Amino acid sequence: MTISTRLDDYLHQQNIPFNVVPHPHSNSSIGTAINAQVPLNQIAKAVILLDHEDRKLMAVLPASNRISLSKLNDELMASYHLVKEEYIAEMFDDCDFGAIPPVGQAYNMSVVYDDKLEELDHVYIEAGDHESLIKLSKADFFRMMELARHARFSREVYH
Hints:
The chain has helices at residues 5-13, 29-36, 69-76, 85-91, 138-144; strands at residues 19-22, 43-50, 56-62, 65-67, 81-82, 110-114, 122-126, 132-137, 149-151, 154-156. By secondary structure, it is α/β, with parallel strands linked by helices. The longest helix has 9 residues, at 5-13. This is YbaK/aminoacyl-tRNA synthetase-associated domain-containing protein.
């Protein structure tokens, strides 16, 4: 599999320029960073959440960080929890399991991003498979995120 169909369509419809960065197969963000020779903190990852009314939310944060659900719920005055992996596979059926592009807009999903991403010059995102990343300029990444909420809701766990 290559770039996710929905992601590719979305990027082209929004006229967002991007580069595909191929890398050897990897099943983890750390492995992807090493294989693609990209700093881990420059890879944005997606965490899929549900609230008590089954409303979906994609939280986007640096791959070097871990989400704090309590911080996020406090910031949004909500009660989100992690989605079960089987459900995620259904929601992202044009992606390999575990290679979710952090572009909720392409999947009709609300998005919140961590403010830590604003420190980057470039942002790399999963393309939908385990062998490619998409490289975006900071401006283009945040153009995609212009309707998303943002807050500081993660903490660094890998340096």
